[in-house]
Amino acid sequence: MTKKGERAVVRGLKDVAAAETKISFVEPKGFLYYLGYNIDDLVGRVVYPEVAFLLIHKRLPNRQELDQFNACLISEMKLPERMVESIRATPKSCHPMDILRTEVSRLGECDPENNDLSEAANLRRATRLVARVPTIVATIHRVRLDKPIPVPREDFSFTENFLYMFKGSPPEEAETDVLHRLMILQADHGFNASTFAARVTASTNSDMYSAVTSAIGTLKGPLHGGAGEKVMEMLDDIGLEEHVEEYIQGLLDENKKIMGFGHRVYKAEDPRTKHLRGIVRNLCYRDRTNSLCNKCSKIEKIVHDRKKIYPNLDFYSAVAMDALDVPKEFFTPFFASSRISGWVAHVIEQYEDAVLLRPSSKYVGEFGRKFIPIEQR
Ligand code: COA
After folding, report:
1. Looking at 285, 303, 323, which one is the last position of a domain?
2. How far, in Å, from the CA of 306 to the mean position of ligand 1?
3. Which atom of ligand 1 is nearest to the CA of 264?
4. CB 341 within 8 A of CB 188
5. Is residue 11 part of a domain?
6. How many whole angstroms separate alpha carbon 102 and alpha carbon 18?
7. Per-residue pLDDT tens for 259-291?
8. Are residues 260 and 163 in the same domain?
9. Do the domain assignments include residue 51?
10. Helices in 204-269 by DSSP H: which ranges?
């Protein structure tokens, strides 16, 4: 409160702690922890399902638990036929994020235990969502290409199956390794906007599908997960490497934002960037990736020199996804396919917290306006 009865507005909820969480910690000096583990200790040493298990069950699995979890994810990957039909019926002009948002909502209709909000049912639902969001994304892609939808294979890991279903052919080991790293880095990030949206919905005791639908709609925005697609549009629009300087200086002169830069919390470099930079540099034997990387290095330097800000997750992850031959309109759906593990973990934590998230506002509108009946307006 400021003056008596008057509320102080924290614009954009900057630095406001909206609840306690044990899931992840975004440290402004440039560190990120999942359940107490520094991500630097996880990337390259664990597979993505290990991190999904960690987020949902709040501890790392042992070998047997991981094998069971992986098998469970694969068994849940296949979509109900009416969802595949619904995806087929969607106009190809729709953005994949719009289709994903609708189909995750439809998953709620297809859940036989939708009215069971017990802890056990929510854990089953969380696993199902972690398994099926990637499958929905792969199905949207295959349908748009008029290509058959591969059936998940038991001899593939969950992550291999995601790439297999998306591309239609078995992935190479190096591609799967890139995807594991990318999915781990995208899995969770404190009270980011989409996670907060999911928690607000869950705080009303609404179901998990509704909460994830809210999250997907929020991730789509270009200030959040939609930034990656904009990064690739910018990199393609720049054209030749020698045009970078003029293009970026021009945007900054016009006070325009450079997509994939800046962060609400980090005051130092985003800890995920060094991993992503490493991933894409390893892929520079591809001519296109090499050229994109060269442009990215130049952009980083110019933006840092002028604005003292750093790339965020979406900058180099765009290049990594491009190297996996993921079309740019699928960058945000891929992001959602990883962030789903963080969303469901936060939804479960929000149910445990059992408090309605409902802030107040400072009214700055008018009072005492004279009502005029419609016939006289
Ligand atoms: N390009 C150029 N300048 C940027 C910038 C960017 N991407 N991001 C922040 N800035 C500048 C702002 O212009 C502002 O400068 P000023 O103080 O001179 O006016 C300052 O940095 C603070 O930016 P602000 O937008 O107020 O910070 P925020 O915490 O509200 O916003 C983001 C954070 C992420 C929304 C913002 O950095 C952004 O829009 N980035 C681009 C989109 C993006 O990559 N999103 C993915 C986020 S993970």
Report:
1. 323
2. 13
3. 29
4. yes
5. no
6. 28
7. 999 999 999 999 999 999 999 999 999 999 999
8. no
9. yes
10. 208-219, 227-238, 244-253
